[in-house]
Amino acid sequence: MTYPEFVRLVERLWAQVPEAFKRGLQGVHVLPQAKPEPGLEGVWRLGEYLDPGPPSAFGGFEGLGRHIVLYHGSFLAVAGPDFDWEEEAWETLLHELRHHLESLAGRDDLVREDLRRLAAFRRGAPPGEGQG
Prior knowledge:
Layout: H1 3-15, E1 27-31, E2 35-36, E3 44-45, E4 47-50, E5 67-71, H2 72-78, H3 85-104, H4 109-123
Parallel strand pairs: 1-5
Antiparallel strand pairs: 2-3, 4-5
Helix pairs in contact: 1-3
């Protein structure tokens, strides 16, 4: 799937998300590059939730905002012959949206779950192990 096609796909999927879930989100961005997972060769981040975190005493986070990013190059890197672009884009978009909603609610359940999965992956554990 080309970058422009992927952008259109993500725009179409994003339009299906109810406005109430988009509250406080400054944008969804589709970037052309791949995003490698630090320290894991051949592992790619499909998306990220960028949250400035709590305001700094120095005002360092003012105006930065909350964003979702999907990396077209990472999708290309993992896509095989049976890769379902729409399903993977939707799953990634909803995963990052959950990060946003949990952040608004002051929760970090999904962050902790992601960290457990990543730690299990680094140990070579089967998928799903390390979740709790």
